[in-house]
Amino acid sequence: MVKIVNAPEGMEGQGFFATSFDKVIGLARANSLWPLPFATSCCGIEFMATMGANFDLARFGSERMSFSPRQADLLIVAGTISKKLGPVLKQVYDQMAEPKWVLSVGACASSGGIFDTYSVLQGIDHVIPVDVYVPGCPPRPEQIIEGILKIQELAKNESLRRRDSSEYRKMLESYNIH
Ligand code: SF4
């Protein structure tokens, strides 16, 4: 049971804002996600539109694209991923520092889409864990923004200890990621 106590004397009133460390970190993380666009085909074009002036992802603090995995915390996979590309995607994910999130944009990234063939990966969650799936072929920029808002919610509410938990490690081990 959570017990809410009153703020100590002198710690509330005009000009004061009391909160917890977890909430401040969550707020900062959620509003400064740095995306790495792993765009391979048509869904990538929708993502470009999402970045453009009409939809303006900068409104959500995510205008800073990173093409280096080490300076990114949101992997956006948009497009068809072939089986040959799977290990490359996994390596990119591996090189990102924790905490990191994955957004799967469109039917191809999420399930192989219309390409039920020998060469196409039937969903990126066969090689890396996914946090949010965006449906559509292709999804509209509004849907991609909705997906990013869902990631923001996850980042905002995530416990600071989640990444050290045995459940999280087990989940990574199930993908053979150490
Ligand atoms: S889901 Fe549709 S629009 Fe997106 S990459 Fe696949 S075929 Fe192209």
Keywords:
alpha/beta; Rossmann fold; 4 strands; globular; binds iron/sulfur cluster
Provide an overview of this structure:
By secondary structure, the chain is α/β, with parallel strands linked by helices. The protein has a single domain, classed as 3-Layer(aba) Sandwich (Rossmann fold). The chain contains 6 helices and 4 strands. It has helices at about 20-30, 40-50, 85-95, 105-110, 140-155, 165-175, and strands spanning about 35-40, 75-80, 100-105, 130-135. It has a 4-stranded parallel sheet with strand order 1-2-3-4. Strand 3 (about 100-105), helix 4 (about 105-110) and strand 4 (about 130-135) form a beta-alpha-beta unit. Helix 2 (about 40-50) packs across helix 5 (about 140-155). The relative contact order is 0.16. The model has no long low-confidence stretch (mean pLDDT about 95). The structure holds iron/sulfur cluster.
Task: Please give a quick description of this structure.
The protein is of the alpha/beta class and 178 residues long. It has one domain (32-174): Rossmann fold.
Which architecture per CATH?
Answer: 3-Layer(aba) Sandwich
CATH topology: Rossmann fold
Average pLDDT works out at: 93
Q: Give the beta-strand count.
A: 4
Note poorly predicted spans: none
Overall, the morphology is globular
Number of helices: 6
